[in-house]
Amino acid sequence: MQNILEQIGIENYIYLSVLLFCIGAFGVLYRRNAIIMFMSIEIMLNAVNLLLVAFSTYHQDAQGQVFVFFSMAVAAAEVAVGLSILVSIFRNTGSIDIDNLKNLKG
Amino acid sequence: MNTLIAISGLGVLCLLVEMFNARKAIVPITILGLLAILGYNISVYNTLGTFYNNMMLVDRFSVAFSSLFIVITTVLITMSHEFYKDRPTKISDFVAIKVFMLAGGVAMVSFGNLAMFFLGIEVLSISLYILAASNRLSLKSNEAGMKYFLMGSFASGIILFGIALIYGATGSFDLTTIYQVTHTASYPQWYIIGTIMVVIGMLFKIAAVPFHFWAPDVYEGAPALTTATMSTLAKVIAVATLYKLAIILVPGQTYAFQMIIVVVAMASMLLGNIMALRQNNVKRMLAFSGISHAGFMVMTLLISNNSANILLYYATSYAVAGLAIFAVIFYVMKDKENETIDNFNGFGKTHPLLAAVVTTSLLSMAGIPILSGFFAKFFLLSQVIQTGWIVLVIVAIISSIISVGYYFKIILAMYTKDSEQELTSIPLVYKIVAILLLVANIAIGLMPNLVLNLIS
């Protein structure tokens, strides 16, 4: 493991994670379909998981990999709540387009 | 440490009581449990230490703030039986979620490891997403839940990325190790980026400008009790956590960091108060008021002398005043189609006692003497002057004066306009809670040392 990391270089892992994180962030900001926004949030969180695992190998330290388990569990719980909110929106409006949600403004 | 375990156990107990068909007992059991936990939490005030390999770090800061959170949660749960009267079968869920939220909050002020911090903030946020969307037949509540969910998980992603960068730079999630590395050895530059991302994520959670845009919508759409939870409990928890994180993670009080805090504080105070002037919806107005108070509370990061005590005092006075106002709002806005200020018309004639409670609480938030809000601002600003940021103090005072404008809109509606609605009796719980909070407000205003010397 350590050998592969030395060949590729830790900075390439960081670039990849930052790229994935930005793809996720722009997905949340620009896409209007709720499911795709959820997927983008997952991409953001998984980019961080990748970074944590890479750093964990780099430091030869298991803490980072344990943290990934926490973050995966939390991400699953978060999306479960998000999807249930989406279901209740779908029951009320019959659509999952975020642009329909314009009742609150001042 | 045992505080956190006891709170989590209490949450599970709430769900079990529901299974044994004792719904009426849920609220009293939870209140008794929370009071017992509060007593225990105060009793460990002098026996401090770290637990589970530094996962939990119990110091005076965490004990004092956990006690404040437990008190706020107790008040909120006391009112929840009356508030959810029309949905009696769901009461255990609402109470249990609030108790779990409190567990998240306690984890957030007593973490010794960034893993614990992350779990705490996620437990808090996920509970709040559920509570915000809990009125599932109302489209407004759904919308509030969805917006809060999207913004909240976006902020969580940013915080998580910041934690990953901090881990990469220092090789540990442990706060003492991070502190040692950043204060003695050299560390990669991206550590600063990680710290800034964590701070940005926390500014999202406390709704400080420029990360405030979700707050008015979410506060307006969510059920009133959830709005009260968000604007008092969640805000106080997030501010305390931001304070603890910034003290440990930011290496030295650099000018750049102070500049960020000054800009955020000034923008929050001015924009919050000016936007609040235009609002006609009470919950939306209190959201903007909360944004401006977040600006005030962020200022404690600038001062070095006695800052934790001042933050605790400010947070207590803000929470006490906010809860008293919300206790009356629950009654006034019940079964109303809109939540405009007109609903307060004539309230001073029909319910003089509660109108007085609202008036004094609003004046406390605006910062009128002998009420605790004045002393909170006084202690805070007199310390900020000593740091040399005179501009910040001037902006703070100007924005306080602006805030009197919109607080008086409600007061004028109560005393000068006539009511069109028939007289209904106010539920006893709201009355007792509102009056007790008013007494607490005046007491900590007259005797600031009750709160001000807790963290030395």
UniProtKB/TrEMBL annotation, chain A:
EC no.? 7.1.1.-
Q: What class of enzyme is it?
A: translocase
Main localization of the protein described in the UniProt heading: membrane
Cell inner membrane among the record's keywords? no
Family to which the UniProt record says this protein belongs: Belongs to the complex I subunit 4L family.
UniProt xrefs under HAMAP family: NDH1_NuoK
Mind telling me what this protein is named? Answer: NADH-quinone oxidoreductase subunit K
Q: Which organism is it from?
A: Flavobacterium amnicola
Taxonomically, what lineage is the organism?
A: Bacteria, Pseudomonadati, Bacteroidota, Flavobacteriia, Flavobacteriales
Question: Quick one: which gene encodes this?
Answer: nuoK
TrEMBL record, chain B:
GO biological process terms held by the UniProt record: ATP synthesis coupled electron transport
Write out the catalysed reaction: a quinone + NADH + 5 H(+)(in) = a quinol + NAD(+) + 4 H(+)(out)
**UniProt-recorded Gene Ontology molecular function terms:** NADH dehydrogenase (quinone) (non-electrogenic) activity; NADH dehydrogenase (ubiquinone) activity; quinone binding
Q: Which UniProt keywords apply?
A: Cell membrane, Membrane, NAD, Quinone, Translocase, Transmembrane, Transmembrane helix, Transport
Q: Where in the cell is the protein located? A: Cell membrane; Endomembrane system; Membrane
Transport recorded as keyword: yes
**Where is this protein chiefly located?**
membrane
Per the record, its GO cellular-component terms are: endomembrane system; plasma membrane
The answer to whether keyword Metal-binding applies is: no
User: Where in the numbering of this chain does the NADH:quinone oxidoreductase/Mrp antiporter transmembrane domain appear?
Assistant: 113-403
Question: Which Pfam family would be a valid example here?
Answer: Proton_antipo_M
Segments passing through the bilayer = 29-48, 60-79, 99-132, 148-170, 190-215, 227-249, 255-274, 286-304, 310-332, 353-376, 388-408, 428-447
Family assignment from sequence similarity: Belongs to the complex I subunit 2 family.
Function in brief: NDH-1 shuttles electrons from NADH, via FMN and iron-sulfur (Fe-S) centers, to quinones in the respiratory chain. The immediate electron acceptor for the enzyme in this species is believed to be a menaquinone. Couples the redox reaction to proton translocation (for every two electrons transferred, four hydrogen ions are translocated across the cytoplasmic membrane), and thus conserves the redox energy in a proton gradient.
Q: What name does UniProt use for this protein?
A: NADH-quinone oxidoreductase subunit N
